[in-house]
Amino acid sequence: MLSTLDAVIDEQGRAVLAESADLCEGRRALVIVMNEPAINVAETALLSEEALADDWNRPEEDEAWSHPEQLASSYYGSADAWHAIERQ
Question: Do 12 and 20 meet the contact criterion of CB atoms below 8 Å apart?
Fold first, then answer.
């Protein structure tokens, strides 16, 4: 089966995969080098944040996301306790 994997070719010609490939053994690969610079994933997220902000920062979104925090507060005693557990 063919798989498409995102990668960046560094200055030394080494391919660095954006995510791990779950392969049971080594495989041949065909590399297509695109005529555009590599973009860091974090940079891509930052660039899309402004475009998505209009949708994220609506009262309807705040209401939709308040329910999980209310559940966490009632179960764990406070939203802060839930966030502390979530970070572990």
Answer: no
DSSP secondary structure letter of residue 64:
H
Burial bucket for residue 73 (CB in 10 Å: 0-12, 13-18, 19+): middle
Per-residue pLDDT tens, the chain, 88 aa: give them.
778 888 888 889 888 888 888 888 888 888 888 888 777 666 666 667 777 888 878 888 888 777 766 665 666 566 566 556 556 5
Q: Decide: pTM greater than 0.85.
A: no
User: What residues contact residue 83 under an 8 Å CB cut-off, 6+ apart?
Assistant: 72
Q: What's the rounded Cα separation, in Å, for the pair 3 and 17?
A: 13
Cβ atoms 18, 5 nearer than 8 A? yes
